[in-house]
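Exam prep: given the inputs below (a chain plus zinc ion), describe the expected output before reading on.
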Amino acid sequence: MKVFNTMSRQKEELVPIHEGKVGIYACGPTVYNYFHIGNARPFVVFDVLRRYLEYRGYEVTFVQNFTDIDDKMINRANEEGITVKELGDRFINEYFTDARALGVRAATVHPRATEHIQQIISIVQSLVDKGLAYEENGDVYYNTAAFPGYGKLSGQSIDDLTAGARVDVDEIKKNPADFALWKAQKPGEPAWESPWGMGRPGWHIECSAMSTTYLGDTFDIHCGGQDLIFPHHENEVAQSEGASGKPFAKYWMHNGFLNVDNQKMSKSLNNFFTVRDILKEFDPEDVRMFLLSAHYRSPLNFSREMMQQAHASLARIYGARDKALFLLEHAKDAPLSEGEKEGAARMDGFVEKFNAAMDDDLNTAEAMGALFEMVYEINTALNEESSKAAVTYALDKLTTLCSVLGLLAKESDALPEEVAALAEKRAQARKDKDWKLSDELRDAIKALGYAVEDTAKGQKVRKQA
Ligand code: AMP
Ligand code: ZN
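Solution:
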């Protein structure tokens, strides 16, 4: 598989550090609110990265943190009159509710910043010891000019970074590019003991501490949204490599931004949507389908129209699955016919196409194309004459690829008992050639919201759209 590595600015073959295993760290949400539809993009996209690697046989360790201490957390907790811990607990729960709805699996580990203060302090201490950090009145700053690689991830030089920057009069940093590793306690703020007095970690240091705690000093993939490349991830590189003296993440993957009606999402434009709000109106799997409809590095526009398209596309996939499930009930036990062998070979071809698209920097948009060729194949090549073997083969390929994308998670609509009983009576009525009773039963089934279709292999009952 090739992935676009932000560090080298090109697609590179993914060669894991430990054979057969991949370690991934993804920057998670700041848990001061429900997450928004923009945040949902990296959650869903990198969940698919993980599923795809597992499907290809890798053992994946997926770490996604919760930022549960920062200015936003402190302000919101104060507004609500609760502790920062209580606020964090609440929105971590809400994260899992919405993530689960979107089909995002729980990570292998979900570390919280406030539970890794000792690891954070130990990295800051080793940076101070190495002359890569300095203390000023209980704050500790990273000394960016002392780290030769500063700027390498975002492709800027330290001179670019300092030239335009304005230094405030009360600035205590040595260099405008320097950033806080540790912040001295201000009145009313949560704080922990440290060699520099009571205080709390800066934002960037938590991800250096939590990624290396669970994945080691050097690991495979670090991901997040494009907005995090600078300064957050640049600073993580400086912190981690500065402290360990070893390379940090081997590959950096960044998702493009999601806009709403072609505008940046913001509270002031009134186009800011939490996933919780969106799920009142749209099916969560439609949201997932929409988020995977574009390549993860492309910008993506959220609109009602795009959601309707996603809904229609997903309905076609479900339609093909339900058709195959229905055929399976009556299909004959027979080996693949010559024609069916050709159909199975075409299905194999679509699987290869899907894999090739995903191998090319996780191109879900193209992979969807292969999936729709499968849907077309099922709709055109399978029918009531198809053998069980042929239907099973096609159904298995379709569901396997869909589960890589986290789609088709809904059970097939099993008939409610009442409908099933009426359908059984109706089948008997038709055997008895009692057409009047058969029609009455059809109406009764219809009144319960189900449509009946008579086919050569018997009646087909399905929920009305
Ligand atoms: P935050 O809680 O703001 O730190 O964001 C959590 C994740 O969502 C990070 O990976 C961000 O880069 C990503 N993110 C935030 N806004 C957007 C957006 N509009 N589109 C895509 N990704 C975003
Ligand atoms: Zn992070």
